Amino acid sequence: MATDRLRTLLSCMLLTSSPDRASAAKTSTQYDCDVAIAGGGIVGVTLARALQASGLRVGIVEAQVPDAAIARDRSYAVSVLSSRILDGLGVWKTVFPRVGAFSRIHLSDADAPGAVEFELRDLGTDYLGFAGPHGALLSALQAAVADADSITWFCPATVADAAIDAQGATLTLNAPDENNRREVRARLLVAADGARSRVRASAGVRTRGWKYGQSCITTTFAHAAPANDTAFERFWPTGPMGVLPLPGNRCQVVWTNPHARAQELQATDANTFTTALERYTGGLLGRIELLSDRLVFPVQLLQSDRYVQPRLALVGDAAHCCHPVGGQGLNLGIRDAVAIAEVLTAAHHRGEDIGSLRVLQRYDRWRRWENVAILGLTDMLNRTFSNEWLPAVAVRRSGLWAMRRVPPVRRFSLSLMTGLLGRQPEVAHVTARA
Ligand SMILES: Cc1cc2nc3c(=O)[nH]c(=O)nc-3n(C[C@H](O)[C@H](O)[C@H](O)COP(=O)(O)OP(=O)(O)OC[C@H]3O[C@@H](n4cnc5c(N)ncnc54)[C@H](O)[C@@H]3O)c2cc1C
């Protein structure tokens, strides 16, 4: 129902079918708001939702129509902290019936003995994590903001240009319909437009990082072994393989390989692929049957030189990207979104200028080092495990031994992976919002 309302709202934003709206657009081509968000992916809409009760007016610009945006065929490992944040934002109750919840995490060095098994008692939570389909997460967020008077959508529209001055930012929108090409003026611009952020580029923010020479192949499959509540991370010398349990005896695999091998695995026939998958999952899931296309994504590490400057902030993949091992990228983005929302809301209530560097630096200080730590951890995991050099083998086997046998190491690793180690946003501690 709520998604239908959102679709109606978005189609209204096209302005083409309504003469009144079209003439309004001709006379007033500039829309003024407090915060303009470029990019209505999961991170951008999480930010809009987190600002909904702040008293700030929000404009959100998204290139894809809602149906196309939610159709992305991917599931993410959603951390315990992200689930609490989404609960505080009032969307987890809609998402939860569609996720796979796991209460065990199994880490192993390929097929070598000595796998680490994390269990619920290690963390004292109801679950250790979740596997959430992109469509379930994004549609629940879209529906949650659909009726918000304080949020205006521009969709489908792309940010063609972002000009930043001392008082604010002006976005020039490009849209399929000429009547919908307008300017959005905001006191603060937040780039949530993904890894190839146009806003970041037009603001001249440089990035550092590297490509891994690896690609991830992702697909969903059914398995013969009984429904499991275990997430696997199996580290092969060719690259890590993450397997996330979905409802109904299904799993999603995120399998890292050198580029050429990933392309081969994508192109090979389904039988050869499932045989390889059965072997690399160690037979733990029994016979496997493919349920979706195999998609391939090159992987990279990227860190923006700065997350903030006067009138501009970067969140999610626009600010940083990490290797998919451990399923951290989106979880970091969700934390960025609620962190900046908390900073902006507090500043607004104190009467501060939300676009000032002084205010934005609070977000930078909160998020930068935690993101750097996770980028470093995922890079280190990928390098030490995608490797047959003996010292690297010794280091990783000792690491796994410590996670198995040394309780503080075990708790530390699990808390880090589930997001519970860093500073927690207030929204993660509130009772679910309506
Ligand atoms: C193979 C793989 C597996 C992964 N698995 C996990 C996992 O298990 N767990 C996890 O936490 N993370 C995972 N990640 C990382 C995760 O996919 C990203 O971190 C996350 O999708 C980033 O979200 P975002 O909203 O910042 O960016 P995006 O999802 O890229 O969204 C950006 C949005 O901005 C819009 N946009 C772009 N340019 C413009 C423009 N100029 N104007 C208007 N709109 C624009 C786009 O249409 C899009 O909707 C994985 C990544 C890969 C590659």
UniProtKB/TrEMBL annotation:
Cofactor: FAD
SUPFAM superfamilies given in the database record: FAD/NAD(P)-binding domain (SSF51905)
Domain FAD-binding, first and last residues per copy: 32-366
Signal peptide interval: 1-24
The protein's name in its UniProt record: Ubiquinone biosynthesis hydroxylase, UbiH/UbiF/VisC/COQ6 family
Domain of life (superkingdom): Bacteria
PROSITE patterns recorded: UBIH (PS01304)
Keyword set, alphabetical order: FAD, Flavoprotein, Monooxygenase, Oxidoreductase, Signal, Ubiquinone
Natural source organism: Rubidibacter lacunae KORDI 51-2
Gene3D superfamilies: FAD/NAD(P)-binding domain (3.50.50.60)
Family: Belongs to the UbiH/COQ6 family.
